């Protein structure tokens, strides 16, 4: 969500000021009298497919301060759940922020995909992390395998929300965001470690209204913000004028400071993907739900199944494909008692 660059003019400043309000106010711009509880409770994990798993694990550990909570291999059942059978047997690592928040980054070994370029295709395109100091993060990442996309900047004139953007070697884009004002004046969640948990996942599609309708209708996510504004890092990636407007919608999950950003690219290609694998870059978004059965008739890629490895911990999970081709994984909040649990072998 935080894409600001200084000096873009009054119209953009006013638009971003409204967007800042949407970040700061939990109920900002929600429909009056909204009573249906959102079906997506919170972000559980964001999955990145990487052709160099150990390099990515080391980068996330050293540059982001994340720690490995579990290593395993993808079981055949989990690969089927994702609709990606070729992922069976691939090494994976689940990492958590130093804060101890139970919102994870998962790295899975994948095949390099020629022609994939970040921020140019439909699907999950970025992960926004809470941080304590975006400027310190930018300095910390300057001599790493992360490449800077946007220098630290405030969201709008007068805003205390500041962010910087980087892309990793696997084509994964991160936004690093903080509210730099007094904590007493803000309701934006504060990072409890230098780099903390994901709090927004960014999805791109050709038509932002279709994306928003899908998540509102199936999961009752309230709309917090809708506008058009320049997003220079996307425009640069696509070779477009940096002042060109993109439609953007912010949808809120049930938990505080857990949201989806929907970006409208207009005509854009689908993510190129190796046969039977997860997409490259930001591949999969995982959300907690109360009850899979209560969500109604969703077109899962495979029937819900109990998974043992992190971040599932014996809970049922299922995956569906959204309107932009994105993989949406749903995990029940509570583990299943008395059910057989499929175990994934650990690597040597």
Tally of alpha and pi helices: 6
The largest β sheet comes out as: 8 strands, mixed
Order of helices and strands: HEHEHEEEHEEEEHEHEEEEEE
How far is it from the N-terminal to the C-terminal residue, by CA?
A: 40 Å
- Quote the beta fraction: 25-35%
Class derived from helix and strand content:
alpha+beta
Explain this structure to me?
The protein has 348 residues and is α+β, with helices and mostly antiparallel strands. Helices cover 17% and strands 34% of the residues. The protein contains six helices and 16 strands. The longest helix is centred in the N-terminal third of the chain and has 15 residues, at 10-24. The chain is globular. Mean pLDDT is 90; it is low at 5-15, 24-33 and 340-348.
Summary of the model, kept short:
The protein is of the alpha+beta class and 348 residues long. 17% of the residues lie in helices and 34% in strands. It has helices at 10-24, 53-64, 76-81, 134-141, 208-219, 232-237, and strands spanning 42-50, 67-73, 91-96, 104-109, 123-131, 147-154, 161-167, 173-179, 195-205, 223-230, 245-252, 259-264, 281-289, 305-307, 315-321, 327-332.
